[in-house]
Amino acid sequence: MKLSDKRIVITGGAGLVGSHLAERLAPDNDVVVADDCSKGDPERVTDDAEFVRADMTDPDDVAEVVTEDVDIVFHFAAYTDTNYDDDRQLFEENGAMTYNVLERMDEVGVDKLAFTSSSTVYGEAPMPTPEDYAPLEPISIYGSSKLADEAIVSTYAHSYGIQAWVYRFANIVGPHQRGNVVPDFIEKLLDDPETLTILGDGRQEKSYLHVEECVDAMCHVVEHADDDLNIYNLGTRTTTSVNSIADIVADEMGLDPDYEYTGGDRGWTGDVPKMRLSIEKLSALGWEPSTSSDEAVRKATRQLLAELRAER
Ligand SMILES: NC(=O)c1ccc[n+]([C@@H]2O[C@H](COP(=O)([O-])OP(=O)(O)OC[C@H]3O[C@@H](n4cnc5c(N)ncnc54)[C@H](O)[C@@H]3O)[C@@H](O)[C@H]2O)c1
């Protein structure tokens, strides 16, 4: 599906990925951003898109934005903190949002959905992990909620005529991000330049993709994959350890802090310590990342540092 001259709804569009996608798509499309602003900031949404404050757990709010003239919904709204403290709320509300969006699409005949899943559906799988790896055994409530969402998206794709693109993201980094490892380290070092507390033992090692590349890959997948249900890993071929992220952030800030560790091989219950996705399927579709995981982290650090310093 060509992404031009379309009416596009982005749920959760005031967040990291959605705000960048809106900026990318708005010049050539009619873009509506729907967000309840629980985490996202409407100030980050481009003026070229229409912004609607709407709660995707409320079917009436969903009906307000998902109207019959919409060509495709990018559904990103979710609780996105992988160690969120209310497990039941995260599981139930993420599921409710996805169900509400699909049910409404079916009701008014909107038949294209792009959905953001996560590497966490794989649990602690061998690496690099391909899309057809099984069994899928998530180890966090967040990963379970994404897998449950994928199941309902699959059902609507196969039985209700809704064509779907599902992205299993590695870790996405970039400006406008909050509550993730890179902005977290920057904030901690702005508060205390001498000491940095690192969750776990610092040897957790994951693949990081810059949000600009993520958005580029997402558009490429929608424009080039044409099955009823299209599942793609999005990531880089390399990984970055948490210790290396700390080194990159300290280097960019011109600091040499002492590192203190909370201990254990993972940051929190349900944290997958090592993650690297196979991107061969994406590569075969004609898309390659242009930066390594380390380069993505460094670029995001520079951008976030400017943003967070300006906010103080
Ligand atoms: N960033 C990553 O590393 C990553 C990795 C894997 C998957 N994902 C998924 O990609 C999507 C986008 O992630 P992101 O990094 O931009 O997250 P984000 O937290 O920056 O954005 C999510 C947005 O959803 C909004 N939202 C939450 N509940 C809502 C509700 N009830 N109604 C309307 N809006 C609501 C928030 O206000 C926020 O703006 C999410 O579904 C996330 O789970 C992200």
How would you describe what is shown here?
The chain is an alpha/beta fold. The chain has two domains: 193 residues, Rossmann fold; 94 residues, UDP-galactose 4-epimerase, domain 1, CATH 3.90.25.10. Helices cover 38% and strands 19% of the residues. The chain has nine helices and 14 strands. It has a seven-stranded parallel beta sheet with strand order 3-2-1-4-5-6-11, with helices on both faces. Helix 1 crosses helix 6, helix 3 runs parallel beside helix 4 and helix 7 crosses helix 9. It is globular. The relative contact order is 0.14. The model has no long low-confidence stretch (mean pLDDT 97). It binds nicotinamide-adenine-dinucleotide (NAD).
Number of helices: 9
* Arithmetic mean pLDDT: 97
Q: What is the CATH class designation of the largest domain?
A: Alpha Beta
Largest sheet data: 7 strands, parallel
Poorly predicted sequence stretches spanning 5 or more consecutive residues: none
Q: What's the number of structural domains?
A: 2
**CATH-wise, what's the superfamily of the largest domain?**
NAD(P)-binding Rossmann-like Domain
List keywords for this structure.
Rossmann fold; UDP-galactose 4-epimerase, domain 1; 2 domains; 7-stranded parallel beta sheet; alpha/beta; globular; 312 residues; binds nicotinamide-adenine-dinucleotide; 19% strand
Describe this structure in a few short sentences:
By secondary structure, the chain is of the alpha/beta class. The chain is 38% helix and 19% strand. The protein has helices at residues 16-25, 59-65, 87-108, 141-159, 181-191, 211-224, 242-253, 280-284, 293-311; strands spanning 7-11, 30-35, 50-53, 72-75, 112-118, 163-169, 171-173, 195-198, 205-206, 208-210, 229-234, 240-241, 258-261, 274-275.
